[in-house]
Amino acid sequence: MVKRFVPLALLLAFVGLVAWKLMAPETDKVTSQLVGRTVPTFALEPAVAGKPGLASADLGKGAPRMVNIFASWCVPCIAEAPLLDALAREGLAIDGIAVRDRPDDVVDFLAEHGDPFGAIGADPESAAMIALGAAGVPESFIVDGSGRIAYHHQGPLTPADLPEIRRQWEAVQ
Questions:
Q1: What 3-state class would DSSP assign to 81?
Q2: Domains along the chain?
Q3: Above 60 in pLDDT, residue 78?
Q4: For the whole model, what pTM was predicted?
Q5: Phi and psi for 12 in degrees, rounded to 5?
Q6: Which of 35, 100, 106, 127 is the most buried (most CB within 10 A)?
């Protein structure tokens, strides 16, 4: 009689194990599968007048760059804006990709929250964002001087993230 319930007990144990692993994943960090690879090809028109657009070819010219994917309508992007300004003042070269945004809104965002960007490409269809393996905004990438993605940070930067950003930046110098 007990042998009849062995398959049921094994099934329940398996379902319990799967449910436990799904509720407690090993990590909550999602990183781009492109870390360690060359930046995918893209060429973006300028998002605002007076600043150049951004192309993947710009990211392999010998000097490292940080690429920040943002949008004026993104509340977490507003929260991280002062930290990007601080990093730029420290000497990090930062470029931006404005996702699904209007030029006037980007101009207003930069005027109100700071402008750490050397170049800002307009990504109206999210094509460059998707090509980079980003899931949304904001996300940041550190690209070495040869155009290889060295580091990916998903979500808004916080003060606690700055030491790791600086460490990753130093590693590509």
A1: helix
A2: 27-171 (3.40.30.10)
A3: yes
A4: 0.83
A5: -65, -40
A6: 106
